[in-house]
Amino acid sequence: MHSTQTRLRHGALTACAAALALLATGCSKASADAQAGDCRDDGHWSGREQAAWLRTAVSFRGTVDGAGPSYEDASVVVRARHTGDGRVLCQPLGVQVEFWTLSARTTGTETSSVMRYGLSADGSRTRTVGFPRGLPDGQDGICTRILVAAYAGAPLRGRELPRTTRDLAIAGDMDVRFGTERIGAYWLLPPQNPTACTPDRPTADPSPTRSTTWDIYHP
Predict the structure, then answer these.
(1) Lowest-pLDDT range of 31-35, 112-116, 132-136
(2) Spatial separation of the C-alpha atoms in residues 144 and 190, rounded to whole Å
């Protein structure tokens, strides 16, 4: 009799424990669903999907017509952006804002990274990155233009780096190519000194190789 009662109590405890486990699992799932409902799940986004989200958040300000004496008032803005249902991203997106100088040389267009600024964005607040100081303005007679891009993920490497498909003097945004789908937005600024970028003007000899990259990361 005692053994039977023990088995009954043990069975009841086992059933109760199973019920509690199912209840806990249900509560945990409901909690996770509630959290996901407050934000947009981007954990498995491809580079193209990240770029598509970033494309609608990025804008460029200042020196729009290329007529300013410098780039000191120009900036890249990653605006606070919510999706159509009002949700921000569940996981902040790593964003790189990078600046290059493009110079016309006898060997072709020379591209040099000037600054790369890392930040994170989830659409909850606006981030602004000013143009670096001391960018060349072409007053030295060399046709030099500035390219800026905002893209998702790791820094560009090798074949991902930008190139131009037309003469630098007449190239536009559509003549810039990147070897990656991660580019959210980019802008090839007009020359600050248009007389240095006339198509019939002789190009300059290649400059000595030097590193001018600034790598700054702010999560």
Answers:
(1) 31-35
(2) 9
Give the separation between CA 187 and CA 98, rounded to whole angstroms. Answer: 11
Does 139 score more than 80 pLDDT? no
d(CA 116, CA 74): 16
CA nearest neighbour of 78 among 47, 56, 51, 45: 56
CB atoms within 10 A of CB 127: 18
Q: How, if at all, do strands 88-89 and 75-78 pair?
A: unpaired
Tens digits of per-residue pLDDT, 99-119? 999 998 888 889 999 999 999
Measured between alpha carbons, how far is residue 197 from residues 18, 58, 63 in Å?
77, 28, 17
Q: How far apart are the first and last CA of the chain?
A: 68
Q: How many other C-beta atoms are found inside a 10 Å radius of the C-beta of residue 147?
A: 21
Question: Which of 102, 110, 114 lies closest to 213, judged by CA?
Answer: 114
E-state strands within the chain: 39-40, 58-61, 75-78, 88-89, 93-105, 108-121, 127-130, 144-152, 163-164, 176-177, 183-188, 214-217
* Confidence band of 5 (pLDDT split at 50, 70, 90): low
Instruction: Provide the pairing of β-strand 127-130 with 75-78.
Output: antiparallel
Strand partners, 144: 103
DSSP code per residue over 1-31: -HHHHHHHHHHHHHHHHHHHHHHHHHHHHHH
